[in-house]
Predict the structure.
Amino acid sequence: MKKVTMADVAKLANVSKSTVSQYLNKRYEYMSEETRKRIAQAIEELGYQPNVIARSLKQKTTATIGVIVFNMLHMLTTQVLHAIEEECQKRGFHVIICNSNDDPEKEKKYVNMLLAKQVDGLIVFPTGKNEEVYRHLVEERFPLVFVDRMVPGVEVDSVLLDNFKAAEMAVDYLASHGYDRIAIVLPPLVAYNVPRMERFEGFRIAMEKRGFVVDENNIIAVTPALLPDELKKRFAKPERPNALFAINDLTLMGVLRFVKETDICVPEDLAIINIDDVPFADIYTPRLTTIAQPTFSMGKKATEQLFVQIEQKRKGKPRVFRFSPILKERTSIRRKD
Amino acid sequence: MKKVTMADVAKLANVSKSTVSQYLNKRYEYMSEETRKRIAQAIEELGYQPNVIARSLKQKTTATIGVIVFNMLHMLTTQVLHAIEEECQKRGFHVIICNSNDDPEKEKKYVNMLLAKQVDGLIVFPTGKNEEVYRHLVEERFPLVFVDRMVPGVEVDSVLLDNFKAAEMAVDYLASHGYDRIAIVLPPLVAYNVPRMERFEGFRIAMEKRGFVVDENNIIAVTPALLPDELKKRFAKPERPNALFAINDLTLMGVLRFVKETDICVPEDLAIINIDDVPFADIYTPRLTTIAQPTFSMGKKATEQLFVQIEQKRKGKPRVFRFSPILKERTSIRRKD
DNA sequence: TTGTAAGCGTTATCAA
DNA sequence: TTGATAACGCTTACAA
């Protein structure tokens, strides 16, 4: 459809391509008012639009970054993406979004495709299983930032929740409200999922610090779909927990489903706290006390950090930015006496 | 960082660039096993990766589409985007995502930037206020699909919910369960927001068909933030509604907030139904009866339709694809006698 | 079966 | 103040 090129404009304006190029790049200094006008008019008349691809080829920069996420439907992802897009928008950059769906093979393919497309940088919510791929990027000093998770063995600027603090916050809040039989609810632990590990470790440490013993029965590690049943089993056993700490929104859903299927009362019989602020926290009964991630700040920071790398190619030591969780005090926990 | 080019590979393999190009494009037919191997090895050795930008310049196709949405945080958006990404992934295409934030100026700027970047097509969740921009694209026969909303006056393939049917579904379900004082809850009506208008019209028509009169008091059109207060005012007046139809998830939130701030019982005092399936529908008490949009199918269809346009440049009459809403029967409505 | 050379639409260098 | 001309890295006739 669109075929009008710089040459056409040049011809119509009776100047050379180079002059048009000057004009487009606002190097007006040595340009007569006269030609400037003629070019402007020619552009207008032809409805000319520069071809960014051609420019990119020459300038070796595309004003585009790639983002690879492991779960597009997750709320954290949505919100961080929103912030990334906004930051890029400010700088005139575009964002290509790819969904690895937690599949390392896809993730790897995407990295390569995006590099082939000459993106200027990459923000990745990593699956955690492509060490060599990322290590290679680091060696090449390719601009790269991790978000949410990190890849063991790869040193890269990373933006993460302070997971230890979040777990500690949960335990402390529960403990200070008089709860003493606290169970943690999470998907099965796997080494490559760093936040999960950290939240679990944070929990264990906080419990010990408080002088609680962590009963093996109170580590409920099962995939969210099986959670309601697993919880029922647990609650059939003695020494029921009186508080549940769900390490993310998905496990929270499992917990709430369980609660709904039983006659347990929250917070009378059971206190609930979780990481990730969910949109219905305020309208649920009781209103849910949660530990929110500052998703917007995290996305902003990740983008800013990527641009630091893009602008000054030589980068210093990679830094890990830990964002403090935010306690949203509502009513799913009540002081117990 | 990456500087190895086809010429380097050619040199190392002792062949010409064209031969390497043949190889890369899998035109092996007239290539000796011998050279093939040499090229493969040279590529391997140098870690060569083709520069897609250069290819795009020549081939006039970027294997990239642009998507402009008016609200990145909306669940519908997230889910449709997910489907779009997946469909594109299958075809080896990438997706550039832009957020117009319902600002027509931004939307317009994005359209132009994406065209400059030579995207092969555009999927837009339109603000509804850029008629000329889109009209121009249509004239140029540029591949374009609208999702969720349409732009009055622009004839383009569009993927939308069957909003009339959705509204009718709500009224019918409520009526058949014995509710007779049904109120509709929605943001203020504006002409460029087609789905909103359609849902409202659908409601009005369905009510009339059922022989109900639509009391002006039962059209609660106010921005979601003010909704709880507005509803309180309404419920202070006589002839309270006994059922509420919220036209989307955001207004639903307003309704639920209102319910929470009062002592109204759902579904005893008040039945609730809404468009958009919300993730907590199942765990809310009572479980929420909703009218879901088939978001995944919609995203898939939009993408397929875009590729139809991309592949056969001459397109027939634009089509509007209306997707049927899906009633998710839960317990926020109970038979009334 | 492989190589030469001419583009693709810009930008950049250097003359004029 | 403006214009030739050579890149940028790849594809593609056409030749050899």
